[in-house]
TrEMBL record:
InterPro entries: Glutathione-S-Trfase_C-like, Glutathione-S-Trfase_C_sf, Glutathione_S-Trfase, Glutathione_S-Trfase_N, GST_C, Thioredoxin-like_sf. Transmembrane segments: none annotated. Pfam families: GST_C (PF00043), GST_N_3 (PF13417). This is Glutathione S-transferase family protein.
Length: 220
């Protein structure tokens, strides 16, 4: 059986988790506590870079969430989560890559706010400005269909849809982007999003780990 090594608070893990659920693939969920468990030899044996997620399928170790999603789409093509049309496929790929390469790095300074921790005001403002650029692009990429480039859920949703709803809860408003806002609402109503949503207890656990790391890096 497939194993997914993950952390509940991680958007990178969650996108794979949702995809497995949407494709109704049987798998075992293995939680990796980010308090040092990811540095133990047992985990380094499956990913020497000590990152999550990792998917293990019959002895084959896959790292990097986008590569894992491509693998799952190729191995479990039903339901299809990549369009066949060239333009639609390009839209899905754009959304995935812009989310990973532009949106997520720029808005990382906002995530301590979710944990009730102080952040850098200048970097937070820069992150919000970058998010607005991405949101405008995504608003224009959405058409009359409910999902990016498709009538059905795609990998664009599992990637962008595990980041944008979080940002909407961190003061990055979607009010100027009605299509993107409605898209978020559709995703949040899906059972797979509800099943994989981090609980308050999970967030508190991560907050404790984050605070301990901060204390170690600022001993004074």
């Amino acid at each position: 059986m497939i194993k997914l090594y993950h952390a509940p608070i991680s958007p990178n893990s969650r996108r794979v988790w949702i995809t497995l659920l949407e494709k109704k693939v049987e798998f075992e969920l293995v939680e990796v506590k980010l308090d040092g468990e990811q540095l133990k030899p047992e985990f380094l044996a499956v990913n020497p870079f000590h990152h999550i997620p990792v998917l293990v399928d019959d002895g084959f170790n896959l790292i990097e969430s986008l590569a894992i999603l491509e693998y799952l789409e190729a191995k479990y093509p039903t339901p299809a989560m990549l369009p066949k049309d060239a333009k639609d496929l390009a839209i899905v790929k754009m959304v995935e890559l812009v989310t990973v390469n532009e949106l997520l790095p720029a808005t990382t300074p906002l995530f301590p706010v979710m944990l009730g921790l102080p952040g850098d005001p200048e970097k937070i403002e820069q992150g919000k400005q970058k998010a607005s650029i991405v949101f405008k692009l995504f608003e224009n990429l959405l058409d009359h269909r409910p999902y990016f480039g498709s009538e059905n859920l795609t990998l664009a949703e599992t990637v962008a849809g595990t980041i944008i709803p979080l940002l909407a809860g961190l003061g990055v408003s979607l009010s100027d982007y009605p299509k993107l806002s409605a898209w978020c609402d559709r995703l949040m109503a899906r059972p797979t999003w509800q099943t994989t949503e981090a609980t308050p207890e999970m967030i508190q656990d991560f907050k404790s780990i984050f605070q301990a790391r901060m204390a170690q890096s600022n001993p004074g």
